[in-house]
Write a structure and sequence with these properties.
Aspartate Aminotransferase, domain 2, Aspartate Aminotransferase, domain 1, 2 domains, 43% helix, globular, binds pyridoxal-5'-phosphate
Length: 477
């Protein structure tokens, strides 16, 4: 008897065949990208053309997976996407995921345990506790600390600020709504999601107390007191200070110890947005950059950045486990029973999300089964590479370094004698656009103090100084 469409969709043999064909394709993809033999990191296509391509593809495909359309879909997806495993991928902060973590992604997707309550994800809940405990320990927290995993740094920062508000504001803003103007202190170089989180929380522009940076792009802690006192004088109830570790555009870490001391003196919640560089806690050579995070009330670390995992997974670690129980004091009686014991195993009580992805599988696989030494190796290698790339730039008269890199984020620009700043900005924007369209390398751009810079984040564990030398030659107009 012929299978119905639904039966075919769930057919075990069919699934295994498809999976094998995808595995073959991914194996070849890894060969060609990791070795750098594939010519391009991305085949640039204009948005309208890309849209049309996929509309046409759907129109022509065999429906119901009866023909080769699924394999064609895989093949086309590969050729129409950016290749993070290519050593000439030196652009954004999304990592080249360790291939075994794509298997845990598949496992999690098929099992689809929603995790909001314990029985909807027993294993991933236990794994989450193990890995967050381990991260807390590496940060330097004690036994009272706890953590959770959530979908992305943006959501984790929002959750941390909600936790901060419940802990430090003089009334219950979650239940009563805002009764006065609240404010957070944050560097002008912080990731825009902090600004967004504050606005979601109803703080408005007036609640974002922007602290200037020094000439080295770290928060100017000398200016901190002035900004704080001005806000207080205006009647703003300041409840949190956010540090960046590092900030996104420049890769510069804020002086966390000084920030921690300030927060302590004024009774503020100290939150460290270490979405990018929190993994430095694993690096023997670079853990000094995270010094002070052990005094923070909360720290955010992205798994899909410097922890080699696929998108989207973030750890939010907090010093006092009880703070996590108070963030969302609302009731959802069908899910959440009131209890006096610390039911760490009912995740929805502490996370913004109800249903969430089983991403603890990736963390456990890498941290507990593979071994945390791999993060020391990775972070140290990439941060060292940032420093050596800076030396290459400084040795080349056609390029100028934006600032000394502290991490694997390097900002630089093409320079030419007798050229105005305006013209240099235009030239560098053109260089970036040409690189994007050529597709041999992928890098990004940023503005620092009105100057247009090219920006590399050295995420790929196979990028070498030779690739970066070639990049400079490639960019020269
Ligand atoms: C410092 C910092 N915080 C937060 C984020 C946002 O994280 P996500 O993209 O995981 O939401 C980023 C992303 O680049 C970042 O660099």
């Amino acid at each position: 008897m012929e299978q119905t469409r639904l039966e075919r969709l769930y057919d075990r043999e069919c699934f295994q065949e498809q999976a094998q064909s995808l595995l073959e394709l991914l194996g070849t993809h890894l060969d060609q990208t990791q070795s750098g033999t594939q010519e391009k990191v991305l085949n640039w296509n204009k948005p309208e053309n890309e849209l049309q391509f996929w509309k046409d593809f759907a129109r022509q495909a065999d429906k119901g997976f009866t023909g080769s359309s699924l394999t064609d879909f895989f093949v086309n997806t590969l050729s129409h996407t950016i290749h993070t495993h290519h050593p000439r991928y030196v652009g954004h902060q999304v990592t080249s995921p360790a291939p075994p973590t794509t298997l845990t992604a598949m496992l999690g997707a098929l099992l689809n345990n929603g995790m909001a309550i314990y029985e909807m994800g027993m294993a991933p809940t236990a794994l989450e506790r193990i890995v967050t405990d381990r991260l807390c320990e590496k940060i330097g927290y004690d036994q009272n600390s706890r953590g959770l995993l959530t979908s992305g740094g943006t959501l984790a920062n929002l959750t941390a600020l909600l936790m901060a508000r419940q802990s430090r504001v003089s009334y219950d803003a979650w239940q009563e709504g805002l009764q006065n103007q609240l404010g957070i202190l944050v560097s002008e170089e912080a990731h825009y999601c902090v600004d967004r989180a504050a606005k979601i929380m109803g703080l408005g522009e007036a609640g974002i107390l922007s602290v200037p940076v020094t000439k080295d792009y770290a928060m100017d802690t000398n200016a901190l007191k002035e900004v704080y006192q001005k806000a207080k004088a205006e009647g703003i109830e300041v409840f949190a200070l956010v540090g960046s570790a590092p900030s996104t555009a420049t890769g510069v870490y804020d002086p966390l110890e000084e920030q921690a001391a300030f927060a302590k003196e004024y009774g503020l919640w100290f939150h460290v947005d270490a979405a990018h560089g929190g993994a430095a806690i694993f690096s023997e050579d670079y853990k000094y950059l995270m010094k002070g995070a052990e005094q923070a009330d909360s720290v955010v670390i992205d798994g899909h950045k410097m922890m080699l995992m696929p998108t989207l997974t973030t750890a939010l670690l907090y010093k006092n486990g009880q703070d996590g129980q108070q963030t969302f004091s609302q009731k959802a009686s069908y899910l959440l029973e009131d209890t006096t014991e610390e039911d760490w195993y009912n995740g929805a009580k502490r996370t913004f999300e109800c249903t969430k992805t089983m991403t603890s599988l990736h963390w456990y696989l890498l941290m507990e089964l593979y071994g945390i030494e791999v993060f020391d190796e990775y972070v140290t290698r990439q941060y060292d590479l940032g420093r050596s790339f800076a030396e290459q730039i400084q040795a080349d008269p056609d390029f100028e370094l934006g600032l000394q890199p502290q991490s694997n984020i390097v900002c630089f620009r093409y320079v030419k004698e007798d050229t105005t700043e305006e013209e240099l900005n235009r030239l560098n924007a053109q260089i970036r656009q040409k690189a994007l369209e050529t597709g041999r390398f992928y890098l990004v751009q940023t503005r620092l103090k009105e100057k247009q810079f090219l920006r590399c984040t050295l995420m790929n564990p196979f990028t070498t100084p030779e690739h970066l030398q070639e990049l400079l030659a490639h960019l020269r107009p």
